[in-house]
């Protein structure tokens, strides 16, 4: 997906709770490119404008798994704390 499509998908999948601003999204995508977790390819968009399309690399999928695992640990810890309140 291209950057705008990624932001829109996040917004829709989160049921309009999460909003990713361009000023945050594009620097984050650049960092992911540098780390080799995503690849980017320039092509025409749906409206024939030049856009960079991103996809996860093999290393990116591995990192995503690690990030999900860490996130689940944090959520479980928060849940344990809240339960005792």
Main attributes of the structure:
alpha+beta, 3 helices, 85 residues, Arc Repressor Mutant, subunit A, two-stranded antiparallel ribbon, single chain
Fold and architecture overview:
With 85 residues, this protein is α+β, with helices and mostly antiparallel strands. The protein has one domain: Orthogonal Bundle (Arc Repressor Mutant, subunit A). The chain is built from three helices and two strands. It has helices at 3-13, 22-35, 58-83, and strands spanning 38-44, 50-56. A two-stranded antiparallel ribbon has the order 1-2. Strand 1 (38-44) and strand 2 (50-56) form a beta hairpin. The radius of gyration is 16 Å and the shape is extended. The model has no long low-confidence stretch (mean pLDDT 96).
Query: What fraction of the residues are assigned to beta strands by DSSP?
Result: 15-25%
Mean pLDDT figure: 96
Q: Strand pairing plus helix content: what structural class? A: alpha+beta
CATH arch. level architecture: Orthogonal Bundle
How is the largest sheet built, in terms of strand order? 1-2
Tell me the CATH superfamily. Winged helix-like DNA-binding domain superfamily/Winged helix DNA-binding domain
Helical fraction: 55-70%
- The tally of strands reads 2
Span from first to last CA?
Answer: 42 Å
The number of domains: 1
CATH level 3 topology: Arc Repressor Mutant, subunit A
């Amino acid at each position: 997906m291209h950057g705008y499509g990624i932001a829109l998908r996040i917004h829709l999948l989160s049921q309009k709770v999460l909003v990713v601003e361009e000023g945050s999204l594009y620097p984050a995508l650049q960092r992911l490119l540098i780390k080799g977790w995503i690849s980017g390819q320039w092509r025409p968009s749906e409206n024939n404008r030049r856009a960079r399309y991103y996809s996860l690399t093999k290393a990116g999928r591995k990192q995503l798994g690690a990030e999900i695992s860490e996130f689940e640990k944090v959520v479980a810890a928060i849940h344990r704390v809240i339960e005792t309140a």
